[in-house]
């Protein structure tokens, strides 16, 4: 009889442990995934379509963003949805899912005298200021006799990109 009682108590205890573990697993499983409003920290290495390194956060401060707020490129944000802590993933983005295609209307011709002489080289990046005082890069695209054509597109526009991602931290929506 004692064996049956011990087995019954052990069986109840085992069921309780299984129930508690299941509850934790399913709640934790859902809570630990990137979803709308999650505060996410991740490490990345960014390469172009030929595999050339563009930049990396490895050994530096990881990138932090709030999922669903448009703080990172749309294609990358879409690919990060549902990832979990310590998960790694390679994400390949077409230009339209990253920084967009090159916009021909984003080229502007200005008088050559407005550009410093030492910056007059095709490919040089200059810093411009918009009417709100924000700084942004512009690239010297072409130098003519009396004018310079500047490219106001993002430097990665028109490029297919690969992000090697590792999720370092996920905080639930509303967490600080």
Description of the structure:
This protein is an alpha+beta fold. It folds into three domains: 1-31; 39-99 and 158-171, Roll (Chitinase A, domain 3); 104-151, Thrombin, subunit H, CATH 2.40.10.330. It is built from two helices and nine strands. Strands 1, 2, 3, 4 and 9 form a five-stranded antiparallel sheet that branches. It has a four-stranded antiparallel sheet with strand order 5-8-7-6, with no helix packed on it. The radius of gyration is 26 Å and the shape is elongated. Residues 2-9, 12-16 and 22-30 have low confidence and may be disordered.
Number of strands: 9
Count of discrete alpha- or pi-helical segments spanning 4 or more residues: 2
Q: According to CATH, what is the topology of the largest domain?
A: Chitinase A, domain 3
Outline:
elongated
> What is the number of independent domains?
3
- Judged by helices, strands and strand pairing, the structural class is alpha+beta
Amount of helix: 10-25%
Estimated radius of gyration: 26 Å
Largest β sheet strand count, sense and barrel closure: 5 strands, antiparallel
Helix and strand element order? HEEEHEEEEEE
Mean pLDDT: 86
Q: What is the CATH class name of the largest domain? A: Alpha Beta
CATH architectural arrangement of the largest domain = Roll
Uncertain runs = 2-9, 12-16, 22-30
Distance between the termini: 56 Å
Strand proportion:
25-35%
